[in-house]
Amino acid sequence: MVTPEPKYEEGCIESFARRNPRMTECVETIRNILKNEHHKSGKMPFTAQTALNLDRYERVREKRSTSQSTVDFVVGLRNNYLLPVEAKLEVENVENIVKDIATKRRHSLDILRSSEGFIHHTKQMVILLNDKNFFQKERKLRNLLRNNPTYSIHNVERFHKAYFLE
Hints:
By secondary structure, this protein is an alpha/beta fold. Helices cover about 40% and strands about 20% of the residues. It is built from 8 helices and 7 strands; from the N terminus they run H-H-E-H-E-H-E-E-H-H-E-E-H-E-H. It has helices at about 10-15, 20-25, 30-35, 55-60, 95-100, 100-115, 135-145, 155-165, and strands spanning about 25-30, 50-55, 75, 80-90, 120, 125-130, 150-155. Strands 1, 2, 3, 4, 5, 6 and 7 form a 7-stranded mixed sheet that branches. The longest helix has 13 residues, at about 100-115. The two termini are about 20 Å apart.
């Protein structure tokens, strides 16, 4: 039996971020984050749902124009779970994703764990791909990641259905 994904919890990420003023300024709508990550294909199912823009937080924290390797954003789920999400919406060759995805996940979780108020994160990390040839890219990426259950691969619409709809 497949366990259902934990669902988005409104206010969870704000509650987590409020303990760190730099994090608070990096909470944005998922809609805005995805637009900045060049989401162009398909519908935009997100409206006011928020996430912590971890790339932006790294830049603010380090006071540099570039950041260390982190996931793009983190979503707050029920029971204070944090879900790391990497948006690879412009990637056509999924082999390029595999090179640094484990490092991004590890560094992102280190940042979250070291933050005051951290409770726990999901075992999974979401990788978002664009709609163009999605199923082919998903299959290839799963094979490259050796079907590692840590990585959950979605397009934007499927991600919304899995984590935001009841």
